[in-house]
Structure formats: structure tokens, C-alpha cells
Amino acid sequence: LYKISEVVILKRVLVLSDMHCGGASGMLPRDYYNADRDLHLQQSHVQEMLFEQWENMVHSVGAVDAVICNGDIVDGLNRKGKGKDIQVTDMMVQCDIARQLLSMIDCHRFIFTQGSNYHIGDNPSCDEMICTMMKGEWFGHFGDVMFDNITMNVQHWKSYSKNNHGGFDSMMGDIDQLRLQGDEADIYIRSHIHNFKYSGGSNYLAVATPCWKGMDGFTSEKSQKRPDNGYILFNIEGSDYSWDYNIFKIPKYFFVKHRNY
């Protein structure tokens, strides 16, 4: 008797977060039009650059097996910013902007987590509404996603810190606690802090994802540090994986006034 070897097919997983659609510095397609509202929206210079990079991502990445949308896909009413820097306050329009952008990606499996309450709400949750629009899989605040023998633990929200590492130190502390209590995963995906960082050990990886948003009034008040924008791509095959990322920053002159005396 001959044993037939199992064929393991490579799975490609794209990870996105913090698109903040509907915000003045969040994602917006070129020449956006909403037929239900008869609404046209034009891009700012920041949104033009973000969308150009989005198009580059779609063409560069090509077909993927899954897209993980790890929260804050829309900007919501932005209660922390008291509604400032919102481009459109209609939540259905914000969700439709996200739907149009995600539909550009060559993929038939979309996985969503819940973003921060002050952006996307919880009853209803705009992230969950977009999940429904995309016929996606809803994981709520956190969950484990299995690809072959690789487990990804996904969660959006992590408290922000004023130290140089943002919320990353706090994130790693939480992951250490999960592992101590036996909740182990191969890959931990966290978002919210708009800065790309990664760490881990011999048998796990922890990543804080980049965002798709420029600076706004609220973040400018806290720091001059510009967000990390971009995406992460995992290639998973059986019990092995590799990963890559593309990170860019919107130039400082998009946000800063220059004066010569």
C-alpha cells in the first residue's frame, strides 16, 4: 500500500485595519458617488495619496484567500474628536465607502472584528454592518482564525499610551498574559495605535498593524508623529508561514504649515 501525501495549498491572507472611512483624513475612493443619497464626494490631497497606495496594493497583492479587516473600518461620529474632521456624518454612506474600497480586492472571504466604540459604535456596529454588506465572517471583539495549522488571534482595540512605544508595550503585556493562561496562538494581530510594530518569540509573532488614515485634529493635538500606513500579507502553508509588509507615511508637508520670516 502506498500512502498518498496530502497536498497543502498556500493560503495568502491580507491584513488591513483602521481605514476610518468617512473621516476627512480617512479612506475615500476617487470620484465617490452614492446613488441612494445622490451624493458626490471629492478627495483631499491626503485621500488622493491614500487611494493611490490602495490601488497599488490591490494590483501588487492580487488574489488572496482571505482579508482580515481588524476594526475601525469607518470613522463614525468620532466622539473623542467631538465630531471634528468628519467628512460625512451619514453612517450608511461611511459603510458604503468601505464596501466600495474592499470590493476592489480580489477575494471572496472577508473576516471582521469590532473596532473602538467611540468610532464605530456597538448598537449598531458599523464594522458589523460592513461585514454584512461584504457577506463576511463576524468575530466580534476578538477571536481565533485558523488557516491550516496556523492560528491567528485577532483583536482591534488596545489602549493607547503616551510613551514612545504607544500601546505596543501594553499589547505585549496582554499577549504574555494570554499565553500564561494557555491561550496560545501562532500569530497575534492587534490594531488601533496606527503604528506598525512587531515582536514575539521562537514560536509566535505579535504585530500591531498600520492604518489607512492621515493625521487629524485629535491626533495632531497629542503628537507630531505621523501614522504608519499600509498593509501586511501572510503566506501560510500547513504549519509554516512567511510574512511581508508595505509601509508608507504621508509627507509632513501635507499637515504642517511652513512659514518663512
Overview features:
261 residues, 6 helices, alpha/beta
Outline:
The chain is of the alpha/beta class. Helices cover 23% and strands 25% of the residues. The chain has helices spanning 45-61, 91-102, 117-120, 126-133, 168-180, 217-222; strands at residues 11-16, 32-34, 39-41, 66-69, 110-112, 137-138, 142-147, 150-155, 187-190, 197-201, 204-208, 229-237, 240-248.
Please give a structural write-up.
- With 261 residues, the chain is α/β, with parallel strands linked by helices.
- The chain contains six helices and 13 strands.
- It has helices at 45-61, 91-102, 117-120, 126-133, 168-180, 217-222; strands at residues 11-16, 32-34, 39-41, 66-69, 110-112, 137-138, 142-147, 150-155, 187-190, 197-201, 204-208, 229-237, 240-248.
- It has a six-stranded mixed β-sheet with strand order 6-5-4-1-12-13, with helices on one face. A five-stranded mixed β-sheet has the order 7-8-9-11-10, with helices on one face.
- Helix 2 (91-102) packs across helix 4 (126-133).
Task: List the SSEs and their pairings.
Layout: E1 11-16, E2 32-34, E3 39-41, H1 45-61, E4 66-69, H2 91-102, E5 110-112, H3 117-120, H4 126-133, E6 137-138, E7 142-147, E8 150-155, H5 168-180, E9 187-190, E10 197-201, E11 204-208, H6 217-222, E12 229-237, E13 240-248
Parallel strand pairs: 1-4, 4-5, 5-6, 8-9, 9-11
Antiparallel strand pairs: 1-12, 2-3, 7-8, 10-11, 12-13
Helix pairs in contact: 2-4
